[in-house]
């Protein structure tokens, strides 16, 4: 017939597919294409049978290419590349066969807290993890060299930046962003949330890294009573039960008057009457803070509050040691799955 041995060509092509990392190239190779060019050289009577034989080879090689490509894809996801973005590794069978990860309990609870405030009409913005002296102190009415600055045990980078020691670093930004809304008779209402850092010795109730949530509200007639109502409503929603509240005077340069806000530990969470837990700092925004953001304190008034997330969560779940949160211990984290 043609003098070409299709069986031999088929065997060579299949071997090529088997050893190639790009098996589809075999379908474009000269050896593959040559089979077709032979058809035209044949006697018309031979063409049909030869064409059919070539087609059989083609089908077999294509099937092998397809199979090889699938195998290569599987191999790719079986190889866990720790430097790859998550979704590249997500389908790897060895990951699926271990347990799936979940949100960190603090992430989940912060979402819950922010959700409660957004349902009350507050916007939400994440705080920065590196900030400057102005937003940490200056914009918040801390005089230069004032001892109140020392109370925050702030870290500083060599360049003088500050990993924020409280989410109040966001107040000035929220006020400036919102001041046009005030002119249209809309209040400023926003919460900020995020990581804060203090140069603290770590023990069961102190961490150098923790989370805060802060609220800012400004309108032409904001009152301390509105603030207390907002906070009580938040705590009652978060804990799902009636909560008693109490305040006592406290000093923060950025509020006047300034208060410490406590709740009575609910009986359902193991509390006895008189078990007061200090939850946050709050007060009416100091006129200087409003002024620095370009808001006229004779026309507008505001309140602000801010406090740690961990203590909220510890009370809700009866967690006794703050250090669990940053420990990365799976036995602890799995309790929240
Ligand atoms: N930023 C203060 C702190 O972390 C808390 C606070 C926020 C007090 C807002 C008053 C108003 O100690």
Descriptive notes:
This protein has a 7-stranded mixed β-sheet with strand order 1-2-3-7-6-5-4. The chain has helices spanning 6-19, 30-39, 44-78, 86-89, 93-97, 105-119, 133-136, 171-183, 224-239, 287-292, 309-317, 324-327, 330-333, and strands at residues 123-126, 188-197, 209-219, 245-249, 255-264, 276-285, 301-308. It is elongated, with a radius of gyration of 34 Å. Helix 1 runs parallel beside helix 3 (44-78) and helix 2 runs antiparallel to helix 3. Helices cover 41% and strands 17% of the residues.
Could you describe the largest sheet, including whether it forms a barrel?
A: 7 strands, mixed
Count every beta strand, where a strand is a DSSP E run of 2 or more residues: 7
Strand content: 15-25%
Structural class: alpha+beta
Main sheet: which strands, in order across? 1-2-3-7-6-5-4
From the alpha carbons, calculate the radius of gyration and give it in angstroms.
34 Å
Unreliable spans = none
- What average pLDDT do the residues reach? 91
In which range does the helix fraction lie? Answer: 40-55%
Secondary-structure element order, N to C: HHHHHHEHHEEHEEEHEHHH
Identify every distinct bound molecule in the structure, by name, code or SMILES.
Answer: phenylalanine
The span between the termini is 72 Å
Count of helical stretches = 13
| Global shape | elongated
């Amino acid at each position: 017939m043609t003098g070409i041995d299709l069986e031999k060509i088929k065997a060579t092509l299949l071997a090529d597919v088997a050893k190639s990392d790009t098996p589809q190239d075999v379908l474009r190779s000269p050896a593959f294409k040559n089979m077709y060019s032979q058809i035209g050289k044949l006697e018309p009577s031979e063409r049909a049978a030869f064409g059919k034989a070539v087609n059989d080879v083609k089908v077999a090689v294509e099937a092998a290419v397809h199979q090889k490509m699938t195998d290569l894809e599987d191999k790719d996801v079986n190889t866990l590349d720790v430097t790859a973005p998550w979704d590249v590794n997500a389908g790897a069978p060895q990951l699926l066969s271990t347990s799936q990860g979940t949100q960190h309990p603090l992430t989940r609870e912060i979402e819950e807290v922010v959700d409660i405030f957004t349902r009350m009409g507050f916007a939400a913005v994440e705080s920065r993890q590196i900030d400057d002296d102005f937003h940490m102190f200056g914009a918040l009415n801390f005089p230069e060299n004032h001892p109140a600055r020392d109370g925050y045990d702030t870290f500083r980078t060599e360049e003088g930046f500050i990993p924020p020691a409280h989410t109040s670093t966001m107040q000035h930004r929220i006020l400036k962003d919102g001041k046009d809304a005030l002119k249209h008779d809309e209040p400023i209402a926003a919460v900020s949330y995020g990581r804060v850092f203090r140069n603290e010795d770590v023990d069961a109730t102190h961490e150098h890294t923790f989370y805060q949530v802060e609220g800012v509200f400004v309108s032409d007639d904001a009152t301390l009573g509105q603030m207390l109502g907002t906070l009580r409503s938040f705590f009652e929603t978060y804990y799902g039960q009636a909560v008693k509240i109490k305040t006592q005077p406290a000093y923060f340069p950025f509020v006047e008057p300034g208060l410490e806000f406590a709740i009575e530990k609910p009986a359902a969470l193991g509390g006895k009457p008189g078990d007061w837990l200090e939850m946050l700092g709050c007060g009416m925004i100091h006129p200087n803070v409003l002024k620095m953001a370009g808001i006229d304190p004779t026309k507008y008034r505001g309140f602000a509050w801010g406090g740690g997330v961990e203590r909220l969560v510890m009370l809700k779940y009866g967690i006794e040691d703050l250090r669990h949160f940053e420990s990365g211990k799976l036995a602890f984290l799995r309790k929240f799955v």
